[in-house]
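Hi Q.,

Before the meeting this afternoon, I wanted you to have the calcium ion prediction in hand. No need to reply - just skim if you have a minute. The sequence and ligand are here:
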Amino acid sequence: MAKQDDGRCLMSSIIIVDDQATNRNLFARLAKSISSDISVNAFADPLSALSWLSENTPDLIISDYKMPQMDGAEFIRRIRQIPSLIDLPVVVVTVYEDREFRLQALEAGATDFLQSPVDHHEFATRARNLLKMRHQQLLLASRADGLERELEHSERSRVQALRDSSERLAQVIDTVPAMISAADRDGKILFTNEYQTRLLGLDPAKVVGQDATALFGDEQGARSKSLDRVVWDTGRPISAFEEEFSDRAGETRTVLTTKSPLRTSTDAITAVLTTSMDISERKQAEAHLHHITHHDTLTGLPNRVLLQERLNAEIVRSRRGNRTVTLHLIDLDSFKPINDVLGHTAGDRFLIETAKRLTQLVGKNGTVARLGGDEFAVMQTGTGGAEEASELAARIGQTVSEPYEIFGTPIATTASIGIALHPHNAANVEDLLRSADLAMYQAKSDGGNLHRFYVEDMTMRAREAAALDAELKQAIADEQFTLYYQPRMDLSTGMIVGAEALLRWHRPGIGIVAPGVFLPRVEESGLILPLGEWVLKEACQRAKQWQGAGLPTIRVSVNLSALQFRKQDVPALVAKTLATTGLAPDLLELEITESIMLEDTEAVVRDLHGLRELGVSISIDDFGVGYSSLQYVKNLPVDRIKVDRCFIRNITTDPNDAAILRAIVSLGHSLDLAIVGEGVETAEQLAHLRIEGCDEGQGYYLGKPMPFEEFIAFVKADSKHVHLA
Ligand code: C2E
Ligand code: CA
Ligand code: CA
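Predicted structure with the ligand bound:
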């Protein structure tokens, strides 16, 4: 970046590296469109880019990942070897499926990612933000540099020079458009820059010397202090993570925060420096992008993508619950002629009107989506079954066929509606959509203006179910079931503190079968009662056994189904099992889902209190996909919250999921609940959970579910086998 004396930039330089000419040209055009004072150099291969970089210093690099001579990770590694390019922002373009590549690029030192095909708006926003950050970096460096040079030439006494320099440095820090503060070991604020106090509407004189909460507020302050402690303990910085807070105007801002140790000349840490850069603009762009990719532009309704997401969430929610998810697919019978005769504008008006009516009809009790053309969908959840679904279909048909007045012409159409229900017709989203689609075609071919349910060969299904039931009954008698154990780790110490007992069926002729396949049958047939009793006893016995094997104290967690609470005296069963196995109650944890609260709440609450009195702990499983909020959980005797794995899956990439986790952690902690993250599959997810303050973690990355003997060996081998970075 060419600079004037005052550090203002004259021109920013961006380089593009991509082996495909079309991409190269597109990126160059987008980069130039950011502002008039940008110069762009494009390279078709990383080697010629590197040779140019050995003599020039640009402000931003945008590079493809898959390139012939070397991949993006190698390219970045070589860039980082050039001293002047250590901090240079590098954006890597990958396609969504390339998550592996992203990790590799991140390890090599990539700054950010863009997803291919690249969204133009997002490209511009990201590039602009990174240039802004780069500009600040250079500004700070050049000012500190000038200061140093001045000092060298100064004839004043060293003390005077030092005093001046710290004053000047303070001025520099005040002018940087980022929040900068430092705190001592006790969490007291040592200094804060003007930008920060202005943004927060605080008086700097009243903040310095105070606890960090005086600056950041209670919630963020507590978080800041605990992260500072990590820096004090490890001596290592915490790299950029996102935070949200309210400024003095009450507006929510998103900032990218970094924490690093400040050291004396003898290398001792004297303070922790916190810097936060405002990235609200980029967040808004992302939110905007999210909205447009999830909604239909004509009607503003959720589109197919969002419908699928919501269906998926509802299906997860109904797990271990007996709730129904109902899908109505609606196809207008005579939309095409309206469009052809009255024109597209009228057609559009007609669709918008239909969308409005459907939304009004369904209200808050479901989701209306437009799947494309003249096809709409309504999703609902509840305990009502076919009868309710058919009633709704009748009302939809009626609403849609009320004549519309469009440009003065009254027009009318009817609808063909296909209905499918989860879990009755389909176990997953794809099957549910397909079943509803088949039903809709049936309605159409039966003449339209009516609704049809998805039907399958009922007798066949019943026969299959009966055969499986018989097999399962035999399996219980023959003791074909076994339990696998999956380790649960304490995220602050890295120790294994628990194990979840997970049911497996040794199905003759087939092998080990996971519960997803048979659990629904076992619940429906009521076999879950004897099986659940067996699971509890087996798990307690084993836990007692591993205590005897000289293992550290490890809690065992047992999953309970809603049906057990409905049909059994669970506290009595647990008391009996603890007595016969001799397991200490505090080594048993019971996992229940929020869906059991939908049953007889009073009885469930009574049972939970009964269990609490026994001394066992209780966790809410699959949290986040259900209905009860944390405020609701507050009134229950619950010890832990297990955040469902669907929130962990994209935790490092999806800001919504990250925000949800953060909210659960902070609210949960204020209610004295421990937070457990499940489905941890990568080192990045683990690091993220730790930074967010999750207490415990579970997932394939920390250990898969394994047979008893293997679990014992696993714990013995190295209870700290996962290295907490
Ligand atoms: P859950 O309680 O949510 O159990 C965790 C499930 O996630 C387990 O599947 C486990 O193998 C899987 N899992 C663990 N780590 C990861 C990961 O990193 N990534 C992914 N994708 N998955 C991970 P599993 O063993 O198939 O159990 C499925 C469900 O069956 C359990 O979900 C639980 O709801 C139910 N279940 C299992 N055992 C019992 C039981 O003894 N009684 C009852 N009532 N339900 C059980
Ligand atoms: Ca569980
Ligand atoms: Ca779970």
